[in-house]
Amino acid sequence: SQTIHQWPATLVQPVGSPLSLECTVEGTSNPNLYWYRQAAGRGLQLLFYSVGIGQISSEVPQNLSASRPQDRQFILSSKKLLLSDSGFYLCAWVTLGTGGNTIYFGEGSWLTVV
Amino acid sequence: ELKVEQNPLFLSMQEGKNYTIYCNYSTTSDRLYWYRQDPGKSLESLFVLLSNGAVKQEGRLMASLDTKARLSTLHITAAVHDLSATYFCAGDGDNTDKLIFGTGTRLQVFP
Hints:
The structure holds 2 protein chains of 2 kinds.
Chain A: E1 3-7, E2 10-13, E3 19-26, E4 32-38, E5 44-52, E6 55-58, E7 64-70, E8 73-78, E9 87-95, E10 102-105, E11 109-113
Parallel strand pairs in A: 2-11
Antiparallel strand pairs in A: 1-3, 3-8, 4-5, 4-9, 5-6, 7-8, 9-10, 9-11
Chain B: E1 4-7, E2 10-14, E3 19-25, E4 32-37, E5 43-49, E6 55-58, E7 61-66, E8 71-76, E9 85-91, E10 100-101, E11 105-110
Parallel strand pairs in B: 2-11
Antiparallel strand pairs in B: 1-3, 3-8, 4-5, 4-9, 6-7, 7-8, 9-10, 9-11
């Protein structure tokens, strides 16, 4: 079966520290992968998406970066976190089809920058 | 680029009442999606609307799509407390590689 996992689920980190969130997908190959952020009480903001290994599209200029070292692995990183990076981060995987795209979300990662 | 707007942003309603959440989008979007998010949780898919005039129903929720008006609606019939959640609409515009989400509508149903 097809599943998507992301971790860690919750983390609290000081300003200026690095960040690494990881997302992996099972049961499919060459998926389209996405990172979204949801600030407290806000909507979802698309941060990055990737249609293949090493291919990253950035939607919003910021101090975050993404990498796709393997087909089913998508990593969100930062070298130095800002307070404004706090939020709920969601990894997602989309299957494209004529019957509409199907998007699967990971469990989410709560990041609090202090 | 596609922009998606929802209203209202927050909705508090009594059990048993009906209400409609509206989703407007700025450019052509052949597909429109509705999701539900419980507090602190990930998103759950509710509906995928594929064509003009599409209507889908699941329990007390019914979604419709008018591509000419660039409008989708999520109608709630006889609300119950279990429907309390945040509801998002999303479209893929002319780029099927990504979904753009609305701001969400936080629904609170009280007795």
